[in-house]
Amino acid sequence: MTPAGPSAWDAPRPASPAGGLEDESSPARISGGTRWHPAMRTALAEAVRVAELGDVPIGAVVLDPSGVVIARAGNEREHTGDPTAHAEIVALRQAAAAARRQDGWRLEECTLVVTLEPCTMCAGAIVNARIARLVFGAFDPKAGAVSSLRDVVRDPRLNHRVEVTSGVLAGESADLLRDFFAAHR
Ligand SMILES: [Zn+2]
Question: Between 14 and 58, whose confidence is greater?
């Protein structure tokens, strides 16, 4: 298959990290230390899984308030033919189903961890889900809606704002995307 649309990951790694390919070597853009690494590694595993199915490798997990993974998903856009089946949307749907089966905590207290900065659609879904915290890996300079193009989740005009941690294992996330697009060129 051919991934739809051009991607920032189609380009070779720039000499400077200023192009949105931040990783552990650019501490100015890193927050949160290693706290989120285990969850991000689960999200990265989801990204690898869906790449093997032909989808652009992006993965997401949702953690309950005690840090337990209640949803894990990859981008399924190509596999399902559903343009809204981004990893975050699929994970939020799983988490909402899990939350309905539980009491004692709410989706509003959960953390969403995703390998790539969410797009406008997903950032909007995160706000609508009232997710407490968003953790993402690589920045997406072409479509990111949490820092790069706009900031949906911290817009003071909206009635819910999300705490954001960015740049977690960003180099690994960017490498997966770069390798995928190189292989599918
Ligand atoms: Zn998205």
Answer: 58
Contacts of 27 (CB under 8 A, 6+ apart): none
112: Cα separation from own chain's centroid: 8
Residue ranges of E strands in 31-91: 59-63, 69-74
Decide: residue 100, CB within 10 A, 0-12 exposed, 13-18 middle, 19+ buried: exposed
- Is pLDDT above 80 for 31? no
The pLDDT of residue 27 is above 60: no
74 bridge partner residues:
59
Q: State the DSSP H helix or E strand holding residue 161, giving kind and residue range, or none if neither.
A: none
Does the pLDDT at position 30 exceed 70?
no
Active site residue 109: no
Q: Which candidate in 22, 46, 76, 88 is catalytic?
A: 88
- Span 146-158, pLDDT tens digits: 999 999 999 999 9
Residue 88: φ, ψ to 5°? -65, -40
CA of 52 relative to ligand 1 center, distance in Å: 19
Phi (first) and psi of residue 59, to 5 degrees: -130, 155
Contact 56, 180 (CB under 8 A): yes
Query: How far does residue 88's CA lie from ligand 1's centre (Å)?
Result: 6
